[in-house]
Amino acid sequence: MTAELRVGPIARALMHHFETCRLAAYRCPANVPTIGWGNTYYLDGRPVRMGDRITQQQADDLFAAILERDFGAPVRAELSVAGAAETSPAQFGAMVALAYNIGMGPRAWRNGLQKGFRQSEVLRLHRAGNYVGAGGVGGDRPTSGAFGGWVRARGKVSNGLVRRRNAEAALYRSDFAALERFTNGEVKG
């Protein structure tokens, strides 16, 4: 049942692997001030500003709260629509990891409206039960699924995003050997 799905430790480890934790604000590849485990805003909605600092505990607490409130709960809601296909815990974790990185969307951006998870092929194909279309087939073309459509930063293909999408798609498929490969052995199934 979708209402019972929670982000598990493997999905959290995957996000931590790709975000890394920084206690001082920095600019992410999209040039947005970011802090902690990839957060661009605080729980009260204030944006992160350059010069901000937080403690490790604050970073961990912020990650956990925003992950559930702004990504876990909304992804669960999107997967709970009538007629949507069943969702495994691994698929849920992979989709929340994707949403955490790309946003739920849509939102205004410098060059127009930026799509997000709600408009993604991953969500559309998953709801329709097309798990191969959403997660790909692995092998020598791991980004063949819809996760592979989210590999650009500022208009250019990012090798880091390619690795991240490969890892998310591997988690979606419950292909833990591939997940370990795409995270240099740091995330194990």
UniProtKB/TrEMBL annotation:
This is Lysozyme. GO terms for biological process: cell wall macromolecule catabolic process; defense response to bacterium; killing of cells of another organism; peptidoglycan catabolic process. It is an enzyme of class 3 (hydrolase). It catalyses: Hydrolysis of (1->4)-beta-linkages between N-acetylmuramic acid and N-acetyl-D-glucosamine residues in a peptidoglycan and between N-acetyl-D-glucosamine residues in chitodextrins. GO terms for molecular function: lysozyme activity. Keywords: Antimicrobial, Bacteriolytic enzyme, Glycosidase, Host cytoplasm, Hydrolase. Its EC number is 3.2.1.17. It comes from the Bacteria. The lineage of its organism: Bacteria, Pseudomonadati, Pseudomonadota, Alphaproteobacteria, Sphingomonadales. PANTHER family: LYSOZYME RRRD-RELATED, PTHR38107. Belongs to the glycosyl hydrolase 24 family. InterPro entries: Bacteriophage_GH24, Endolysin_autolysin, Endolysin_T4_type, Glyco_hydro_24, Lysozyme-like_dom_sf, Lysozyme_dom_sf.
